[in-house]
Structures are given as structure tokens and as C-alpha cells.
Amino acid sequence: MWYVYMPLYVVSGVIQPILTDSLKYQGGVTGWPPTLLTLLAASVGMALVGGLGKGSNPSHANTLAKATFLDITAGALCQSGLLMVGSGVFTVVYSSTTAWTAIISFMGGHQLTTQQWLGVFTISFGLFVHAADLHLSPDNVRLFVGLPILLVGTFLHAGAFVYNEHAIRERGIDPFTLCSA
Fold it and tell me: What are the DSSP calls for 109-143, one per residue?
């Protein structure tokens, strides 16, 4: 059944930013709080992946609840940030997830190889070069409010990756079950 669920999951991930930009450019995001309706596509995609899982173990309920809370919080903050700062700034900041994941993982005791650190530094340098080209204006209040929201969301998103890896390796939770929690 993976051949049915996996393409649906990929499509749901592609649809979300497209729906967000469409909603924003048609004037659907004018006030606060911003709509989080576009998160629905990604959430449905994750729920579909649950059909591939082995079923949940009641002893894993607390871990799954923490993973879900972390994922929903990160998603809501990132989505809010996207709606406020726009897709250009969002892409740069959100791409730092890889670097944050490596740093959080390292702080948690996971050793990274030289190639992994080289990859983190290469990505970080590329993000720095791209960010240096962004012209931030003090007049853009939405940018200055949205950027910290997006940074926290990106950091939490990276933390969710590290937490989920821990849940799979240390707690023995099935990845598909974790994905759909």
C-alpha cells in the first residue's frame, strides 16, 4: 500500500505552500491571527501515512503526544511566519532546519561525521550568502514580527526531527505510526 500513501504524502507537502501563496496573494490573509487552514493539507498527508504503520502501542502514548504537540506548534509558527514574511524570506530561514537539526542533535550527544559537519557548514554558508541579498526595511513591521516567529518555528521543527529520531531509535516507535501521530 506504500505506493498509494507515499505519493499522496508528497503531493500534500507540495500543495501546502502553493495554497498558502494563493491565499495570501488573493487577499485572504489580512489580519491576525493568520489562517492556519493551509496546514490541513500537510496534516491529512501525515494521517495517510499512518495506514502504513504497525499500530500504536499504548505505552508510547506520552511520546506520541509530545511529538504531535511539537510538530503542530512548529507547523503553526512556521505557517504564521510564512504568511507574514513571504516565501522568499521563508525559504531562506526554513532551509536552516538542517543546520539546527545538526546542532540540536550534537548538543544531545549525537556525534556527527566530518562529512555531515561539512554539509551543515556548506548549507549555512549558502543561506548566509542568500540572506545577505535580502533587503530588509524597518518599515516592514510584518517582516520584523514574522521573522522571530518563523525562527522559533524552524528551531522547533528541527527539534521535532531530533525528538522523532530519538522516539524511533530509543523508544522503538514505528516511524509510520510516529509520522501520523
Answer: TPPPPHHHHHHHHHHHHHHHHHHHT----TT-HHH
Amino acid symbol at 19: L
How far is it, in rounded angstroms, from Cα 62 to Cα 180? 15
Helices (H), 26-174: 39-49, 61-85, 87-94, 97-107, 114-132, 141-171
Query: What is this structure's pTM?
Result: 0.72
pLDDT one-digit tens code per residue, 14-63 = 677 677 777 777 776 666 555 666 666 566 656 655 555 555 677 777 88
CA pair distance 56, 181, nearest whole angstrom = 9
CB–CB of 150/100 below 8 Å?
no
> Do the beta carbons of residue 158 and residue 93 sit within 8 Å?
no
Contact at 8 Å (CB) between 96 and 120?
no
Q: Residue 4 phi/psi, 5° resolution? A: -95, -50
Close Cβ partners of 176 (under 8 Å, ≥ 6 residues apart): 49, 50, 51, 52, 53, 54
- Give the residue among 67, 53, 23 at the shortest CA–CA distance from 159: 67
| Residue 91 and residue 145 in contact, taking contact as beta carbons nearer than 8 Å | no
